[in-house]
């Protein structure tokens, strides 16, 4: 038993599982950023036709899951489990999405680490033989997060330079025991047409993160709080698998932002990883989602939807098109609550890693 | 593949997994109720030596997990994953517990359905070969829940007769691929001495719930909101497994309370299950935890810790002692958020079922 565990924190998959569908949705501002070509759905109104932001976020999550399902070629009835979470209290976006989808549902809370948490759990449940197909996903919305974690946006509060901009975005993937029918695949970038050299993508392994608390108490320094957790998971992943960082074409953290990304790079180099390898492979979704100067996002992007949309859009599409073969992706979460800083607590971080690889199957 | 799935929502286990340790902790009021003899730790102060209620709840969860671990005879280093959740925003109790335990952690949110959600996920990950040993658990605290979901308790607000009393309680179990060494077992009731005829307990199967919304909009009618979800999961479980309800010695829902329990019984009988079988097998933890008249708990008990402590204490101990052979347990959650009712939403419910059986191994 436990024959799929390697090292201390890593699980290895042998029979797939495969990513047979994925989709990304993004808000107005995100759709004007450097990654705009990779989003399947671009909102021109962040209310998305709803009368509250929370309902808009829940609808984003539902729509992106349904689109990922459609792109997988599967029917809703063939989905065994939905796994998702978000930043809202009582994961309101996910709970109401699951009510509408009417499928077996397991709710998660990993703050912004939720996308890889759901993907890793979905992969284990599929590989373990408990499901044929699972939809995984995560969402966030600037306006729901601002009023819950900071101030109502109507206040027009100024944000300090280190604070991050919660992405209005969501991503979803369909994890399956079988490979997909590649003749049906459209790459987001290539105007939806099917792709001559499309690649199947399998989940190779994953590393479950530990909660790491570096003692940061400034709630406007989320990147600094999460970077040590991200690096801890990366180093444990490399140790468990016996791989070097240059095994991967790309290594992405979730939403450390500009400051956290710089700290993570320093910590990786301090741990003995070649600086050139780090510089050429490593990036952070929170540093990729917006144009730093023009879009005025202070410390960069954050939120569950940041890494969820980048992984489900940009990364999967580039892998599908054969531009990337091996990707190490980590969503990164700050596990503070709205009251824990007021009780004198520092900000614990967590990061879960998943390895995606193209395969010839 | 997916050879462990039966029917639409149920997963079946063949190689265990086993419950090799469990523990329950309860607050002052809960420790004066009918189930007091089954709690391992009884608080005489619900602050538990901390300076905030939230820190007290987190400490309860940590202590009950460490006690379950100790009772399992395992070392902390042999635990691969911790799975837990609670009712607090950003699952503060679980996140800070996980920071202190320093073990790989996957956070869950299922409202009061969390205990069986964690147990079911932990069983799948163990049976799937991804872990040797997993600690699962859930917690709640009257004072943290009151101020988050209702009013600060200092207000002294009156509660309507249908409102439920959030339990100050937590429970944890150690799920393992191997059976436990029964010579080390002490039953909570029997003053900790080892037990001559102790039984091993295996997880036989589990049914993942769907979100069911019966349209209830009164936040003081949680039992009514959750009862249809509980019954939906029970009926799907029976259909998937081909069993009748009298296959089980005991069938317990999580925290429907007095009103929800009565509705669940009616719905089960309406669905064609013999009333005598329902009357003799079925009960609800929320109706069991307190003395209804003397303890003035209005609609009964609720909270993640209600079913977590009853399952981890009362049920496991009675099974260990051979008094119960087959138990169908369901934690039941109301997936509303603190703002969803103000946005006109009704209250969605969910329930996950797990079957525990004694075995001669």
Describe the protein in words:
2 copies of one chain form a homodimer. Chain A has 361 residues and is an alpha/beta fold. Chain A has helices at 53-72, 92-101, 114-127, 142-149, 222-241, 257-270, 275-281, 285-288, 304-320; strands at residues 5-6, 10-12, 18-26, 41-42, 81-86, 105-107, 133-140, 165-166, 169-176, 200-207, 212-213, 250-253, 282-284, 301-302, 326-334, 348-359. In chain A, helix 1 packs across helix 2 and helix 5 (222-241) runs parallel beside helix 6. The two termini of chain A are 28 Å apart. The model of chain A has no long low-confidence stretch (mean pLDDT 94). At the A-B interface, helix 2, strand 6, helix 3, strand 11 and strand 16 of A face helix 2, strand 6, helix 3, strand 11 and strand 16 of B.
Brief characterization of the structure:
2 copies of one chain form a homodimer. Chain A is built from 9 helices and 16 strands. Chain A is α/β, with parallel strands linked by helices and 361 residues long.
Annotation keywords:
homodimer, 361 residues, alpha/beta, eight-stranded mixed β-sheet, six-stranded mixed β-sheet, 9 helices, 23% strand
pLDDT < 50 runs, ≥5 residues of chain A: none
What is the straight-line distance between the termini of chain A?
Answer: 28 Å
* Secondary structural class of chain A: alpha/beta
Average pLDDT of chain A, rounded to a whole number, is 94
Tell me the helix content of chain A: 25-40%
Could you say which overall geometry of chain A the principal axes of the C-alpha atoms support? globular
Largest interface: A-B, 65 and 65 residues
Count of DSSP-assigned helices of chain A: 9
Strand content of chain A: 15-25%
Order of helices and strands of chain A, N to C?
EEEEHEHEHEHEEEEHEHHEHEHEE
The major beta sheet of chain A can be summarized as: 8 strands, mixed
Oligomeric composition of the shown chains: homodimer
